[in-house]
Specification:
By secondary structure, this protein is α+β, with helices and mostly antiparallel strands. It has one domain: Lipocalin (Beta Barrel). About 3% of the residues have low confidence. 25% of the residues lie in helices and 45% in strands. Helix 3 packs across helix 5. It is globular, with a radius of gyration of 21 Å. It has an eleven-stranded antiparallel sheet with strand order 8-7-4-3-2-1-13-12-11-10-9. A three-stranded antiparallel sheet has the order 5-6-14, with no helix packed on it.
Length: 296
């Protein structure tokens, strides 16, 4: 075999391996779709704050039934909308988008501000960005890493800055950043969201960061029959057009590839309270509401 043919063989072999890896990645991500019973568990494990009056967070345990709906599957862009089911009542929950070899990221900085980061192509080769969005489809956090398939396991790990979690947002004001160590592992029963987090005080003016505590999170998503989530399936069928308008408006903002700062409230109301209003359904009205929260 001459050098030219050898190089061609190596290139084709690498492409074949990458395609096989990507197919495995897609299959793993899609296994996070369906109806799940969830067991949320969080506990502070270590305290680093030198203040003797520091009070650790209480252990947090909660259970939920949730439907994860695949709403986009298009050439390396997968979007999953999560819907909480509470009897006959459905709440639009978080959303996760997975984008293959994505170079454009909005990384959380602090104070409801996200910084645009453009990564070199070589740094994201074979990786997937997980973009996590709030209930109103505004940004939350994101990070880029590779899925790993080895020894019968499939998992994705990443560490990134994030706002305070919802369970502490109204309870704690002694830290302003969470460094989230996320691990998503697919198992036979469903999947596991395993977290090793740090609670951080970030002082942008002095360019300093102090870790005050570490936290362990362990949430299990156990698959159950989709019929358990019929209320969510029906709710999404009735409301998906409205929320497609919301996503399109946000996408027009994200596509500018600029830093983004958002107001926490307008006229003493957070964004989700406007968008969750059943009377708000029109594309133009939705766009005007979101614009009010974007800091120029």
């Amino acid at each position: 075999m001459n050098i030219k043919n050898l190089l061609l063989f190596v290139i084709l072999f690498c492409i074949s391996n990458m395609n096989a890896q990507k197919k495995q990645d897609v299959e793993a991500i899609k296994k996070m779709c369906g109806c799940f019973e969830i067991d949320f568990n969080f506990a502070e494990t270590f305290q680093f704050n030198r203040d003797s009056t520091y009070s650790k967070s209480k252990n947090y345990n909660a259970k939920a039934l949730e439907y994860a709906k695949l709403i986009k599957d298009d050439k390396g862009h997968i979007s999953i909308q999560h819907l909480l089911v509470m009897g006959s009542y459905v709440i639009k929950h978080w959303r996760q988008d997975w984008i293959y070899e994505n170079r454009d990221l909005l990384m959380y900085d602090s104070d409801n501000t996200w910084k645009y980061v453009s990564k070199p192509k070589k740094d994201v080769r074979g990786q997937w960005t997980q973009k996590v969005f709030q209930v109103d489809d505004s940004p939350r956090y994101e990070g880029s890493s590779s899925w790993v398939h080895i020894d019968g396991k499939s998992y994705w790990e990443n560490s990134t800055y994030a706002p305070l979690p919802r369970r502490e947002y109204t309870k704690r004001n002694d830290y302003n950043i969470m460094i989230r160590g996320n691990r998503h592992e697919i198992i036979n029963e469903g999947w596991i969201h395993d977290q090793d987090n740090y609670k951080v005080v970030k002082d942008s003016e002095n360019d300093s960061e102090d870790i005050i505590a570490a936290e362990k999170g362990y949430s299990t998503y156990t698959r159950v029959e989709d019929s358990r989530c019929n209320e969510a399936i029906n709710w999404w069928n009735d409301n998906n057009t409205k929320w497609s308008f919301v996503r399109e408006k946000w996408n027009s903002i994200y596509s500018k590839n600029n830093d983004l700062s958002l107001k926490r409230s307008v006229e003493d109301r957070p964004l989700f309270s406007y968008l969750f209003d059943d009377n708000v359904t029109q594309e133009k009205e939705i766009g005007l509401i979101i614009d009010k929260f974007v800091v120029d």
